Structure prediction request, 225 residues.
Amino acid sequence: MTRVIVADDDFIFREGLGELLATRAGMDVVGACGDLEALLEGVEGQRPDVVITDIRMPPTKTTEGIQAAMLLRESHPQIGVVVLSQHADAAYVLALLESGSNGRAYLLKERLHDIRELSDAIETVQGGGSVIDPKVVELLVSAQARTDNSPLKGLSERERTVLAEIALGKSNLAIAQTLRLSQRSVEKHTHAIFVKLGLSNVEEISKRVKAALLFLAEGQRAPGA
Prediction:
């Protein structure tokens, strides 16, 4: 059983989400919290496998969900965190991934149309993977591509498509399957992309995601990547 805590200051939302998750085989909702303090206490008391959290909760209703993810990275690195947000904001995503993308997901509430999408994300972060909503990646790609001095202008259309898939945390094999290309072709595109962006030393998935998002959001090399 996957032990899950739901944190959201909207009572109806968190209780409803808890009820929906409880219908999924293998899911055990062990807590529902309305603020950052209650969430951290719940983690200590229940030791969940995954935390699902909103971004804005009491006491300040600013970035409590991101703060929780950062604190848990230090205190309980094995706990996965799924952030459910109403904001397609690069700053929030980058803050979430600042200490690595493994075991982290950023999903937009408005685009969750099936409980299976959320349960799949839960399973992914529990296994150490990452999930980023494609809409966030699309916004970053589009915004950066419109910048006159953007290094993205040096990428071919195919390379931009592959870069968007990289930023979603996909492996070369998964990208090949999605785009119906050979894995060897994807490897060549990936190598070309990171050479052009000055990220040729970035190899593992967690660094690929962070580097791609940092580049797309700020148009520069990720510090320490």
Observations:
- The longest strand covers residues 27-33.
- The beta strands are 2-7, 27-33, 50-54, 80-85, 104-108, 130-132.
